[in-house]
Amino acid sequence: MPSPFPGMDPYLESPRYWQDLHESFITYAREELQPQLPPRYRALISERLVLEATERVMIPDVTVVRRPAPPPPAAEEGAIATAVAVEVEADEPTVFAALMDDLRESYIEIIDRTGQRVVTAIELLSPINKTGEGQRRYRQKQDEMLRGSVNLVEIDLLREGAHTVVVPRPNLERHEPFHGLVCVWRASRPLYCEVYFVRLQNRLPRIRIPLLPEDRDIVLDVQGVLTRCYDAARYDLDIDYTQMPPVALSPSEAAWIENYLREKGMR
Known about the structure:
By secondary structure, this protein is α+β, with helices and mostly antiparallel strands. The protein has a domain of 186 residues: tt1808, chain A. The strands form 3 sheets. It has a 6-stranded mixed β-sheet with strand order 1-4-5-6-7-8, sandwiched between helices. α1 packs across α3. The two termini are 17 Å apart.
């Protein structure tokens, strides 16, 4: 059963599903792009190590207890008594992670076989890319790609988190409201960004993926990839559509979701 939504399903933004969706999306997107690429290119799935501070308390699942040895048999009358050492057990500590959590985020790189260099990077933004230290690190990587003249495609389907894609937020204000967006930055036109807006009522876009200037764009059907992820994971068996999505919504978005799901017979 497909998602009931015509475009982005806001229920998929739950931490319960997002990481699985992210990995599937990157895999299926690469699979869709690969046959469209001219022979000089190849699409690779690369990983970036993301470090996230944690204060998670770790309680052991199993406690192994060493029982005290049984007392020695009573000494025979007249035998010399020997001292018996008493073993003292320490109290149990609470253990905290001393290091950072390491997460691995996948993204797509389109490589020019001839020059053996990255031509285009395709990112599906995660919550960690849009908050705190994770956003700072992502911005640093983003800047490296722009200065390295790498075409950058940023797919942000998430309602929550800070604005992170290349195009400045003030430039988009007259197009509000929107749930998310896709931003395409071309190294050959560094002063411009191509933007596709994501709204809950609409199908997700088919977007242009740039290559080198002498080669024509290829196309990624974002909705088609998302639908494939949803069907493969059978999210419909887990998501409770009688509850509201796990994201902050505007009153108009919340009202639209309520009415839409009622019309679908899911409320």
